[in-house]
Amino acid sequence: MTTAVRRLRIEGFKSFRRLTLEFFPGFTAIVGENGTGKSNLLEAIMFVLGRRSRGLRAERLEHLLHTPPGGEPVPEAEVTLVLDNRSGVFAELCPDPEVVLSRRISKNASVYRIQGRLASAREVEALLSLANIDPNGYHIVEQGTVTDVLEGSARRRREILEEVAGIAAYEERKAKAVEELAQVKERLNAGRILLAERRARVAELFRQREAALTFRSLSEERERIQATLAFRRYLAK
């Protein structure tokens, strides 16, 4: 099962005041002269997928806001990405035929939405992982990436190939599962120790209860004997 970009809507992001692009099945090429915003289109997609500002050639979120010539930055920016879900690749979390993912930012805030509903970055990551999409991975090849791969070490190239093939994601999930299992075992051992302490405490309380019952029984017996002796002394007078 696969997915594809069907629509991209940009408002107030970087060099774009407002733009909507429709994508059709097959290969899509976007061409233009230098400085016309081709890289910003790719960064808009990376942005809505969850890439941090430093990975978008910006130091802070506010640097992603569109600034018209001679004007001030717009107060907000929003990018909306529509993904094809007719194959059901996202069906586990979203049964609709289209997945609408959006991200809105201001100078100091970032908000995600899935199908118009507020969502956390973790929820977005979980949704994208169903299609093996990593916003920080190699689904989008930036300028210079090919050169870095060719000039990198054999180990680095292997790491990249494993990440592209999805092996790295499984290894990461495996490591996370092993870590969670270790935490569960640790909590289980702590629970066993606590249970042993509780059992020892219950046994001690049971012994104390038996001793208290014996003491009360003997005390009542002593009182009866004392009462009997007192009554006999009274009769003997």
Notes on the structure:
The protein has 237 residues and is of the alpha+beta class. The protein has two domains: 4-133, 3-Layer(aba) Sandwich (Rossmann fold), CATH 3.40.50; 171-236. The protein has five helices and six strands. It has a six-stranded antiparallel β-sheet. It is elongated and about 130 Å long. 14% of the residues are buried. The mean pLDDT is 87.
Spatial strand order of the main sheet: 2-1-3-4-5-6
Q: Can you name the CATH architecture of the largest domain?
A: 3-Layer(aba) Sandwich
Query: Which residues form runs of ≥5 with pLDDT under 50?
Result: none
The secondary structure category is: alpha+beta
Succession of helices and strands: EEHEEEEHHHH
Basic shape: elongated
Terminal-residue CA separation: 107 Å
What profile does the largest beta sheet have?
A: 6 strands, antiparallel
Share of residues in strands? 15-25%
Question: Which CATH class of the largest domain?
Answer: Alpha Beta
Could you please say which CATH topology of the largest domain applies here?
A: Rossmann fold
Number of helices: 5
Number of domains: 2
Q: What's the pLDDT, averaged over the residues? A: 87
Tell how many strands the DSSP assignment holds: 6
